[in-house]
Design brief:
Elements: H1 3-82, H2 87-170, H3 173-186, E1 191-195, E2 198-199, H4 208-216, E3 221-222, E4 229-232
Parallel strand pairs: 1-4
Antiparallel strand pairs: 1-2, 3-4
């Protein structure tokens, strides 16, 4: 295989690796942003539960104070009723006492409801706090792994780009110009293997003579349908499999 063909194949391999690394490097910060967004949502939900629990406790405390006020008032009214001079005054005190007792029952019913709600809220807050602690630890681990992965990717990207630069310096200018033109047009797929007379990129059946020319790998030839650079990789015979490098190495 002539050097230009071998270099074109190598360039394509490097370009594919570079594109893969660039996609991964770009995706990693998005991954971090996503898990941090989820963590923030869970934190806001926990704060909402805490706020609801705090409101519950404040209302409960207020109602307990209201009950105490009403009970003190009832006690005072009862003392006053005992000193009433007429039945009419006594009944007035009794009506007021009954109203206060009704208020106490209403407050106590609400207190029972709040206590029931409080148990559920406290349970939710405890569960959310435990879950959030675990999630924070997981997020920190993922962020560290992402930073490590990014550092490795950037190193490999630099190595691949340096390798590409060396390959470009060795390939002939005409072939490299054609390579870049095809890469822009075909979105990165530049070189295609020919298998059994078929271009594996566009699946065109090559003309017999053209197929024979491609099989020799003695010049840079282009697919008559998709325009990609074509190469032929001879099948490896069993007896020849062990020694010698691959045609693409």
């Amino acid at each position: 295989m002539i050097p230009d063909l071998r270099l074109a194949i190598h360039l394509q391999s490097l370009d594919q690796r570079i594109a893969e690394l660039e996609r991964e490097i770009a995706a990693l910060p998005r991954h971090i942003a996503e898990i941090e967004k989820q963590l923030d949502q869970h934190l806001r939900r926990l704060e909402a539960d805490r706020s609801a629990l705090s409101g519950n406790q404040k209302e409960l405390k207020k109602l307990e104070g209201d009950v105490q006020v009403q009970e003190q008032k009832i006690s005072k009214l009862k003392d006053q009723a005992l000193q009433a001079k007429t039945n009419e005054v006594y009944r007035a005190f009794q009506h007021e006492i009954e109203f206060c007792e009704k208020e106490v029952r209403k407050f106590e019913d609400r207190i029972l409801d709040l206590m029931s709600e409080s148990e559920a809220l406290e349970k939710n807050v405890r569960a959310a706090e435990a879950s959030l602690k675990t999630e924070k630890e997981q997020v920190e681990r993922e962020k560290k792994d992402t930073r490590d992965r990014t550092a490795i990717d950037r190193k490999q990207l630099a190595e691949s780009q340096a390798g590409r630069g060396r390959a470009v310096s060795q390939v002939s200018p005409a072939v490299y110009a054609a390579y870049e033109r095809i890469r822009r047009k075909r979105g990165g797929a530049v070189v295609a293997e020919v298998v059994e007379g078929l271009c594996t990129a566009c699946h065109l059946v090559l003309r017999p003579q053209f197929y024979q020319d491609v099989r020799r790998n003695e010049e840079v030839l282009y697919c008559e349908s998709c325009g990609r650079i074509l190469y032929y990789n001879p099948p490896v015979v069993a007896d020849e499999a062990a020694p010698g490098p691959s045609v693409l190495s």
